[in-house]
Design brief:
single chain, alpha/beta, Dihydrodipicolinate Reductase, domain 2, 2 domains, homoserine dehydrogenase activity, HDH_cat
């Protein structure tokens, strides 16, 4: 059986999740994928920090050590922020390595260039985990686009905001109280700005726009509004009318004019809306296509194992595509 060398960039929640799956499920992955995945190196900021789940000899803070691994086949990238993640993946693709990312901040801006470069070098880029964590939005969209024309996408793309709105309605909490609760449970970061401001959902929406329409709207033209100005009184009044606040990201294309338009903002919706029943930290994406109509995907949008699972599944898809190419 072929042994495949793997590296992981970043060892926070998602990076540790990938490592855990590769180690704990190694035998199962051998049977399912037909290869033996061996973690060769893990890039961290401080290799001297005690990490009980990974052997010290696997740790490095030098990207050159990753680039120098002979026959490195795939890298799982889970670094926070645009740089140095982009430059690292760019160099790895030049080396002829497949890359899989969960980094929506980086990929929303550089995804197109990375995919174009990967095509030139005969490798693949996996990015399922950049949008909605473990919900297979990217794979579903890929399948739809074979025969359908996507007209509109709307989604709840941030589990933290959805959790806060759920608690404000279900438990009568004020915004600040619900946010504090989300932080205690680990749903929100110590600095929750990207979640509650809508920036996290915006980046994910731009990735979906690029996939569906092969383009993004001009970022400066996209109205992005968070949930921090919604009051408990507003939520109470909406509930009494049978309506709910949801933080919804929408992108659509007018095929007559060619214009792509997007918004990220709180919306007041009723039971007829496909996102009305989405609760707690779940994400959901409703895709409207010309032939299929509307299909809605729902599931956990974040967390160690859902996101890491999506990344490992991406590699399984890469192997399938490679086998299909070889067999033709």
């Amino acid at each position: 059986m072929k042994k495949v060398k793997v590296a992981i960039l970043g060892f926070g929640t998602v990076g540790q999740g990938v490592y855990r799956i590769l180690i704990e499920k190694r035998s199962q992955l051998k049977q399912m994928l037909g290869v033996d995945l061996e973690v060769a190196k893990i890039l961290v900021s401080n290799p001297n920090k005690p990490r009980p789940h990974a052997a010290k000899e696997l740790l490095t803070n030098q990207i050159e050590e990753i680039l120098d691994i002979p026959n490195l086949d795939v890298v799982f990238e889970a670094i926070v922020g645009e740089e140095p993640a982009y430059q690292y993946l760019d160099r790895l693709i030049e080396k002829g390595c497949n890359v899989i990312t969960a980094n929506k901040v980086m990929f929303s801006k550089h995804g197109k260039s990375l995919q174009e470069k990967a095509a030139k070098h005969g490798v693949q880029v996996g990015f399922e985990a950049t949008v909605a964590g473990g919900v297979p939005v990217i794979k579903t969209m890929d399948n739809l686009l074979r025969v359908n024309k996507v007209q509109r996408i709307q989604g709840i793309l941030n589990g933290t905001s959805n959790y806060i709105l759920t608690q404000m309605r279900g438990r009568g909490m004020a915004f600040e109280e619900a946010l504090e609760d989300a932080q205690k449970l680990g749903y929100a970061e110590a600095d929750p700005y990207n979640d509650i401001s809508g920036q996290d959902a915006f980046r994910k929406l731009m990735i979906l726009s690029e996939l569906a329409f092969k383009e993004q709207p001009d970022w400066k033209d996209v109205k992005v509004q968070g949930i921090n100005e919604i009051t408990s009184q507003q939520v109470k009044e909406a509930t009494e009318k049978g309506m709910r606040y949801r933080h919804i990201a929408v992108v659509q294309k007018n095929y007559k004019t060619g214009e792509v338009h997007a918004t990220v903002r709180p919306e007041l919706i009723d039971q007829s809306h496909p996102l009305y029943s989405i609760e707690e930290v779940n994400n959901a994406v409703a895709i409207e296509a010309d032939l299929l109509g509307t299909v809605t995907l729902v599931g956990p949008g974040a967390g160690m194992l859902p996101t890491a699972s999506a990344m490992v599944e991406d590699y399984g898809d890469m192997l399938t595509k490679t086998k299909n190419v070889i067999s033709i």
